[in-house]
Queue: 2 jobs
Job 1
Amino acid sequence: MPVGTLASVKGVPQDILEELGVQILLGNTYHLYLRPGVEQVRKLGGLHRFMAWPRAILTDSGGFQVFSLNELRKVTEEGVTFRSHLDGSSHFFRSESAMEAQIGLGADIIMAFDECTEYPADRARIQSSMELTLRWAERSKKHFEEHKHEVPWATEVTTQPDATQALFGIVQGGMDHTLRKESAERTIKIGFPGYAIGGLSVGEPRALTREVVESTLEHLPADQPRYLMGVGTPEEIVEYAGLGVDMMDCVLPTRAARHGLLFTSEGKISIKQARYAGDSGPLDPNCGCRVCQRYSRAYLRHLYASNEVLAQILNTVHNLSFYLDTMRAVRHSIKLGEAARFPSVVWSQPKP
Ligand SMILES: [Zn+2]
């Protein structure tokens, strides 16, 4: 899932996202709640209509963003008080308000409110944080069940009168395998149509991320979507898909693109380097995207060096295309039943 924080994948129009084959986008509740505001989006018919995006959308609960504010927040049993990064104004998010905001935005998949446990943390801290997330998960589900028909498009979906959003639960438990297992089992007991693995990519070593993902997946139903939040590099998304992860989101392809870091079939390229100034070849000779079909590395390097807006747009289009191609190859392998032939992605080695 490409990340469209503020109802926009930075620099890329929706028709191009469609052309790239994006099936689902992620929007950030925290950011949309602050600007333009949930009520505004709801009045305009919900996120799909507001941003003219007919395909699927997932919104996060706002929890992760709020927790990354550090100094600006205070957590209690009831919820989180935080200060807006925009104007310093004070806000309060609880399970119920996170649900209300996400129902108002009207994404297809919404997330339970959770506490993202910091890393490192001792066992007692991880356990109490996990218990809080479980209580918030129950409250999230209760509120959602009572208000799910208030979604802005409820009356429009005439062909499926019972159509509503899907609320996913989030597994926490830090880097502790037994707590991850307990969190998974008790979240499943509350009952959700899909489950996310949260609390990773919070500064832990990559080998540990993999270990926790693998051990958590064992305890989540394979016949329901399993969503790993906030990963990863092309190499990692292939690896996690191989372990059984169905959904992932990451700002990496879009954020890296804006910094001139491009993923290609021949490795990662920093287009700002002077070595590309006279390179008339395509960015990635094995990529079929509109950027690689049309422009040279020399031109992309020139745009970046000149700080042209077009640089960000073209770089983002290519990186998204590379990620989506990678996942298409993964899906193709799964369809053929040949997980062993998963695409091998070279990204970490700079091009010689
Ligand atoms: Zn390309």
Note: The two ends are 30 Å apart (CA to CA).
Job 2
Amino acid sequence: MEPLLDVKGLRTEFATGEGIVHAVNGISYTVMPGEAVGLVGESGCGKSISALSLLNLFPKPGYIP
Ligand SMILES: Nc1ncnc2c1ncn2[C@@H]1O[C@H](COP(=O)(O)OP(=O)(O)O)[C@@H](O)[C@H]1O
Ligand SMILES: [Mg+2]
């Protein structure tokens, strides 16, 4: 069966005045049809930005290098 979603080494960064924030630092996972996936982690670990990155909806000045 083919994955519904296949994420490989996703990175998202923010260039700030104090340097580059590595908001998402190389995550990989697959979601198969019919699977439900939960993303768990401490505040600020990148849950929201990684999900938004799948749709290119992360806020500026974020970018995928
Ligand atoms: N607009 C932004 N500029 C700079 N850093 C940001 C911005 N938005 C989020 N971040 C940083 O990206 C990291 C991940 O944030 P986020 O995905 O919102 O965390 P979570 O949803 O897991 O609490 C955090 O370190 C946060 O401070
Ligand atoms: Mg969040």
Note: The longest helix spans residues 47-54.
